[in-house]
Amino acid sequence: MTSIIIIGGGIIGTLIARELAKYQLAVTLIEKEVDVAFGSTKANSGIIHAGYDDQPHTVKAQLCVRGNQLWPILAQQLHIPFTQPGSLVIATSSEDYASLEALLQRGKQNRVPSLQLIDNPRILTRREPHLTPHAIAALYAPTAGFTSPYEAAIAAAENAQANGVRLIRGQPVQRIIIKHGKIAGASTPNGFWPADYIINTAGLNSDTISSLAGISSFSIQPVKGEYLLYDKQVPNIVNHILFPVPTLQTKGIVVTQTVHGNLLVGPTATATLHKHDCATTIAGHQEIITEATKLVPLLNQYPAQTIASFSGIRAEADTKDFIIATYDDPYGFINVAGIKSPGLTAAPAIAQQITTILNDYIGSLKEKERVKLTRTPIPRPQTTVQDTETMKLITNRPRFGHLICRCEHVSEGEVIEAIQRGASTLDGIKYRTRAGMGRCQGGFCTPHLIQVLSHQTGMKVETITKRGGMSHILSSPIKPHWSCEDT
């Protein structure tokens, strides 16, 4: 059987793994972090772009529009949060208006459906009551939406594994083995993994992985983007995804709601020399507020309602376009690199394109007789509502009635199932259940999560980490004030 290694467990790598799992292939997904979605996937806006922003005839433009069409189906199959409120690009000057007209024409060239230029401020006010009074027009894209990128990657990985993909975590690829001009496999600290084909989806490290195969035709230029996340107590003050008029460098500071009901603003765009520089800054915070309030002045009324600031690093290639490339030497190596925005949007289309490439390589991919296209999510009991389904679940599985995270109403049962599905860190639990993502940012639930994780895995509490590596929470055992055995 043809063997394939995918390097990198972000949204691109996991969706490719899921797509290839439909065929008679031996697929191995190798992720250097202790869990999938721990790279750029964990920290971005989650926006599914309509596709009007990208230059026509680029790889980005083609795959963005196709990916946008695929996301509703994908979200339904994987049971991940997804919504399409549409987006508005806001113009506040005559120069901005000219830019909207250019975006409209670009969108039509890219075949973005149902784009509309709204040049009546009264219509804008009805659509967005809190929009700046300086708004004179907007480009409306009804197909724009948003999702939870880390939940999508986790769900895709689970579905891929259910269909036979082998997932290796916590193992960086150190060498790519080439014999007689062809891919032979890859080595990690745990040994050698044979492969006929290697797909490089290593994100920020994709240029490094490519160079291991002897291909140094591009470099990744990291760009840091900072965000601010608001408490759910801030009212829903926007109805669409709000963009300023984009520049050549960035789509600008966005104001939007997340799929979980928080207001999110950002990102900035700052070039950095360090691929893992995720520090947040006062300057970044100030830039976000300054630019966001130009779109929604009401944000000035909630200066103390931010519950988290974070940043992500975009893997921008010096080619300024997605790199999806095959090579004669070494034969069998495929680069999927430089996948910055709209990479999340394009991800399912990229997965399909890689399948087409492999089909051409191999001759004809043979579909498996049985493939599971859907994925069952972790049960989410409404612990504050006494409905029939909730009571039935809690009766049969009592730990789903024991609340651990008060902010996000996450039960012990959900945490246990997240661990059983592969979470081995606090962030792994958080990305699967939202425990620790609420108002107190884990101030209440962290000790409970440590206890449950220790009890379920046998790990000593002082060895438990936030996200692997040296991110330990405790330096010594703690005296428990609550025990998993109490329920």
Describe this structure in words.
The chain has helices spanning 11-20, 59-78, 94-109, 121-127, 149-162, 206-212, 282-295, 343-362, 388-396, 412-420, 426-433, 446-457; strands spanning 3-7, 26-31, 47-48, 82-83, 87-91, 116-118, 137-141, 145-147, 166-169, 175-179, 182-188, 191-194, 197-200, 220-230, 241-244, 254-257, 263-266, 270-271, 306-317, 323-328, 331-337, 403-405, 410-411. With 487 residues, the chain is an alpha+beta fold. Among the domains are: 83-144 and 221-317, D-Amino Acid Oxidase, subunit A, domain 2 (D-Amino Acid Oxidase, Chain A, domain 2, 2-Layer Sandwich); 388-486, Orthogonal Bundle (Arc Repressor Mutant, subunit A), CATH 1.10.10. Strand 11 (182-188) and strand 12 form a beta hairpin. The longest helix has 20 residues, at 59-78. The protein is globular and about 65 Å long. It starts with a strand and ends in a 30-residue tail after the last helix.
